[in-house]
Amino acid sequence: MATKNLSDYDLSSVPSAKAMKFGIVVSEWNYQITGALAQGAFDTLVKHGALEENIIVKHVPGSFELTLGGQFLAEYTDVDAILLLGCVIQGETRHFDFICQGVTQGATQLNLDYSLPVIFGVLTTDNEQQAIDRAGGKLGNKGDEAAVTAIKMVALQKSLEGEIEE
Ligand code: DLZ
């Protein structure tokens, strides 16, 4: 099965992000990968109209801490959406499973507890090459995908709240 290029999307399907505020939480673990995810997400938000001053970027030690970092942003800022960006690479122990499970459940919980789009931009790969391929490599950038998803979810929420036309 061909793997989707994470940076391929229909430009015309993405609403303007001009009036939106975003928080990006980036894991420092595997930073050569997550830094590229963050750059991709930031650039894509700006490309769709977000103002740089309306994008807050914060770092946490590892992917396991992404959800608490996201909760801090939800509690202490007025962002419209939060992007959680991390990279968990399968090792020899079961740590991979526990971290992936923790961040997945944590992200889901944040979405529902705060009624706020919290985007799961975490690469979970068997090896480093698979991560490189998805962090600006031959399969695009997971950060781009997370940014587009965030914009679309904010637009959906605002349209239902009556703030913008869909
Ligand atoms: C400990 C750990 C390991 C083994 N692997 C990763 C990883 O591949 N990606 C990642 O983002 N974080 C990893 N961590 C760190 C945990 O996410 C977390 O920071 C520590 O367990 C401390 O809570």
Question: How would you describe what is shown here?
Answer:
The model has no long low-confidence stretch (mean pLDDT 95). The chain is α/β, with parallel strands linked by helices and 166 residues long. The protein is globular and about 50 Å long. The protein has 5 helices and 6 strands. Helix 1 crosses helix 5 and helix 2 (66-76) packs parallel to helix 3 (95-114). The protein is 44% helix and 20% strand. The protein has a domain at 45-160: 3-Layer(aba) Sandwich (Rossmann fold). Bound molecules: ligand DLZ. Ligand DLZ binds next to strand 3 and helix 3.
Topology (elements, then pairings):
Layout lengths: L21 E6 L3 H17 L7 E6 L5 H11 L4 E9 L5 H20 L3 E8 L2 H6 L1 E3 L2 E2 H19 L6
Parallel strand pairs: 1-2, 1-3, 3-4
Antiparallel strand pairs: 5-6
Helix pairs in contact: 1-5, 2-3
The structure holds ligand DLZ.
